[in-house]
Design goal:
The protein is mostly helical. The protein has a single domain (39-229), classed as ABC transporter transmembrane region fold. It has helices spanning 2-24, 33-36, 42-84, 88-95, 107-110, 128-177, 181-186, 191-207, 209-241. The longest helix is centred in the middle third of the chain and has 50 residues, at 128-177. The N and C termini lie far apart (93 Å).
Length: 242
């Protein structure tokens, strides 16, 4: 009997704790983007707009960089493909001395010994350096834009979020000071400090750099789909023309 009496309070405490947890769970209120930034003034909105533009630029840089890098690789592939399509035996017989042997490995180092000019052979004038230099220069520009836009995004959005959360703390503190004494009797001691710190820090995270990260991911997704669609159309047109 004593053991059964000991088990009942444990079971009762368990169900009481479970019921308390269910009561504590409140439905999360969903707010719009406009309501999320309702405490922002003109300066903070200006920072927010600039940070959003920087996030868009940061998100576009990745797919553009992949496209330019693909063009850079294509330059090497085209050069190698053209070289592999040559008939070296015929070239040696027509343009080279008898003691010269041309292969795919020594073509560009030995071709100067042969009587091959621009008029009879255009492959030796394939300036891969000019092709690659242009692509590398564009990649450097994209990298600089990526670095600057990422830095500007973080700085401006964090400044805007910090200023807004400071305003929210001031409004919350003024609201608490206007409460009656009964309000402080019915609320826990650490509840107000949690509101001032943890809850407002969550708001800071949501309207700061993470907001820019969401925009960046969305723009990257849209840019990749758009660029992929454009390349797919170009490839299909080339196949039809060929």
């Amino acid at each position: 009997m004593s053991q059964e009496g000991e088990k009942k309070p444990e079971t009762t405490n368990f169900w009481q704790q479970l019921r308390t947890k269910k009561q504590d769970k409140t439905q999360t209120e969903v707010v719009s983007i406009r309501s999320l930034f309702r405490y922002a003034n003109t300066t903070e909105l200006f920072y927010l707009v600039l940070g959003t533009i920087a996030s868009i630029a940061f998100g576009v840089c990745l797919p553009l960089g992949l496209v330019i890098f693909g063009n850079l690789v294509d330059s090497f592939i085209d050069r190698a493909a053209n070289l592999c399509s040559l008939n070296f035996t015929s070239l040696v017989q027509q343009y080279c001395p008898s003691n010269v042997t041309l292969t795919s490995t020594n073509f560009y180092t030995t071709v100067s010994l042969c009587n091959i000019t621009k008029s009879n052979f255009a492959l030796i004038h394939y300036d891969i350096k000019s092709h690659t230099n242009k692509q590398v220069f564009i990649l450097i520009i994209i990298a600089c834009v990526n670095l600057i836009s990422g830095y500007v995004r973080v700085i401006l959005l964090e400044i805007s979020a910090e200023r807004q959360t400071r305003t929210i703390r001031q409004i919350l503190f003024q609201s608490v000071l206007k409460k009656d004494v009964v309000f402080f009797d019915t609320h826990k001691t650490g509840e107000l400090s949690v509101r001032f710190t943890n809850d407002i820090n969550k708001i800071h995270d949501g309207i700061g750099n993470k907001f820019g990260s969401v925009i960046e991911v969305l723009i990257t997704f849209i840019s990749c789909i758009t660029i992929g669609k454009i390349f797919l159309v170009e490839k299909s047109d080339k196949i039809q023309t060929n």
